[in-house]
Amino acid sequence: MSSGEVATDRTRPARPDQTRRGRVLRTQRIALGAVAATLVLSGCSGADARRLGFPRGITTDSDRVTSLWQGAWTAAFIVGGIVWGLIIWAIVAYRRRGNEMPAQTRYNMPIEALYTILPVVIVAVLFFYTVRDQSVVLKKDPTPDAHVKVIGYKFAWTFGYSDPQNRFQPVYDTGTNETLPELWVPQGESMEYTLISNDVIHAFWVPAFLFKMDVVPGRENTFYKTATTTGSYAGRCSELCGINHSHMLFTVRVVTPEQYLAHMADLRRRGQVGDPQGHLSQEYNPNRNIAEGQASQ
Predict the structure, then answer these.
(1) Residues 29-47: tens digit of each pLDDT
(2) What is the CATH number of the domain that holds 246?
(3) Beta-carbon count within 10 A of 274 CB
(4) In a shared domain, residues 110 and 189
């Protein structure tokens, strides 16, 4: 071999697979940098990051629901990491090194058994924890401290309050064109929610409860919650129920038991007494344009 040939060999360009590997590594570094920058710039606290996008709960079973959410994401991250690891390993270990066809493997029974049994095990574990926590979250309270009948209709809410302890007579509350309907909840007391629909399927959702339930015509759905943190929280319908679905909003006010009883007395003084079914949409229409158009016809 001549000196000229040696020089030519030393200046041989990089192999295509080495170039591709360099591009992959650079892409990975950029992606990791973007993730790190997003976490830093978003200003998420440690507690917010641990909730993995879940809102902060305000009921006695919020920790259980949050734990289930975190567990599901942990399982997803582990499975995703294994899958991506195997994909990257196969790309690197079995990349093309020449023009020869690699050895083909068929009917690998251990591998086929693995990717058949393992998903079943994963689903079974997730199912077990979901059923366990669901049974606690939906457990009936035989002696609730308060009761509210939640009536959903197109496109608003009415709340009828009654008291198992007979501290006040049944009263109701509904929204107006100026204010959203308000659901008052006593802090630290178990409240029974009875959900009723007068027309189509709605869904009662309070993000701070970490819970929602369908409101179905002809059927009463019931659940129990004990709120632990006072404040005002958003509520909405989470089931597409018609043209004004986005207007089905309400406000949840978690107050002390004394403030709750005072509000019930105020509703009674305003004459809002009795069954709320007869007082649904007489005053409240979330879309004035529709109301005015109907009046002009």
Answers:
(1) 555 555 555 555 555 556 6
(2) 2.60.40.420
(3) 13
(4) no
Domain that holds residue 247: 146-285
Tokens coding 238? 């989470």
**pLDDT, tens only, 55-109:** 889 999 999 999 999 999 999 999 999 999 989 998 888 887 778 777 777 788 8
Token pair for 109? 């029974």
d(CA 287, CA 289): 6
Q: pTM for this one?
A: 0.73
For the record, the structure tokens of 111 come out as: 């591998």
Burial class of residue 141 (count of CB atoms within 10 Å of its CB; 0-12, 13-18, 19+): middle
The structure tokens listed for 243 are 């043209």
User: Is the preceding omega at residue 127 within 30 degrees of 0, hence cis?
Assistant: no
Residue 290 lies in a domain: no
Distance CA 294, CA 292 (A): 5
